[in-house]
Amino acid sequence: MEFIYLTEEIRQQIDKYVEKFPVRDQAVIQSLHLIYSKYRDIEDYHMKELSEYLQVPLNVIEGIVSFYDMFRVKRGARHHIRVCKNLPCHIMGCKNLLKMFEKLTGEKANEYSKNGRFYIETVECIGSCSIAPAFMIDDDLYNGLNITEEKLNEILSKYT
After folding, report:
1. Is the distance from CB of 88 to CB of 97 less than 8 angstroms?
2. How confident is the model over 37-76, as pLDDT tens digits?
3. Are residues 92 and 145 located together in one domain of the fold?
4. Same domain, 150 and 83
5. CA torsion 96→86→26→78, rounded to 10°?
6. What residues are paired with 120 via a beta bridge?
7. What's the pTM value of the predicted model, to 2 decimals?
8. Is 134 left (phi over 0), alpha (psi -120 to 50) or beta?
9. CA gap 47, 57 in Å, rounded
10. Residue 107 maps to which CATH number?
């Protein structure tokens, strides 16, 4: 099979992951992270090529992608904002943080971007309870405690 999206460089890195595990399908999550870091989304064609390359059933890869919030499946914007809504973040004010994001970006949470700049998503957990309410923009993690609209706008201005 000819691989269009799994470039030679990506395949070499995936091969390194495969060497570390006794079973090929244990390299799926690391491989998905690699694909996500290059393309910023996990599309059907990425999953199909990864399935073919790792010789892992497509439904296994689709199950992993749909389970973890860290992978975005649909293209909607240049930057992906994730606001944690789990209990610690909820208690510490994630709803107010989410309202500020919606106001400053003009986007509604969990709806695809109209202007192509941001996609705001509420997620169950990003694993950063110690800095609740936590949020991420792309791969950058932030503490939302006591954040003002001015400070949040300053952060957003870094993502053009």
Report:
1. no
2. 888 778 889 999 999 999 999 999 999 988 877 776 665 6
3. yes
4. yes
5. -10
6. 81
7. 0.65
8. beta
9. 10
10. 3.40.30.10
